[in-house]
Write a structure and sequence with these properties.
About 25% of the residues lie in helices and about 35% in strands. It has helices at about 5-25, 85-100, and strands spanning about 40-45, 55-65, 75, 75-80, 105-115, 120-130. It comes from Fibrella aestuarina BUZ 2.
């Protein structure tokens, strides 16, 4: 028995529509992360927390790392320079751990600077560790 071409097309469209409907409601079993989680809140540049706070200490991390073979000048061009996002996240993790050890709730005015020379990559990461003030409710 032979199906008419119209029926075969209809079945194809119906199958495609079913797949689209089923996959559009897909919800991953593992939530997609929006980035690393740090032990204290981060406020970059001029961002400020909405809660009142007291300043604890200005923290800074800096280092200079010699260039690896793949980062050297090739054909007059500097390729593969800089830190990866994973490197930057690890550095931020170190700074936030310093803040946490002080008892800070947040780092404000966080700044990240990167530089490169003919022989090394360097970075500086800084921020002000702050502790939120207690809020009392009037009852």
């Amino acid at each position: 028995m032979r199906l008419p071409i119209l029926s075969i097309r209809f079945i194809g469209y119906l199958t495609g529509l079913s797949l689209c409907l089923l996959t559009s409601c897909f919800r991953p079993a593992i939530p997609i992360s929006t980035g690393p989680k740090y032990p204290v809140e981060l406020f970059y540049g001029q961002q400020q927390p909405t809660r009142p706070y007291e300043e604890l200490k200005f923290l800074t991390i800096s280092d200079e790392v010699p260039l690896q073979a793949k980062q050297r000048v090739r054909g007059g061009r500097m390729l593969d320079r800089g830190n990866t996002m994973l490197d930057k996240d690890a550095l931020m993790g170190k700074l936030t751990l310093q803040a946490q050890r002080l008892g800070a709730d947040a780092l404000v005015n966080v700044k990240y600077q990167y530089y490169t020379t003919a022989t090394a990559n360097g970075y500086s990461l800084e921020g002000l560790a702050v502790k939120y003030k207690q809020e009392y409710s009037a009852n």
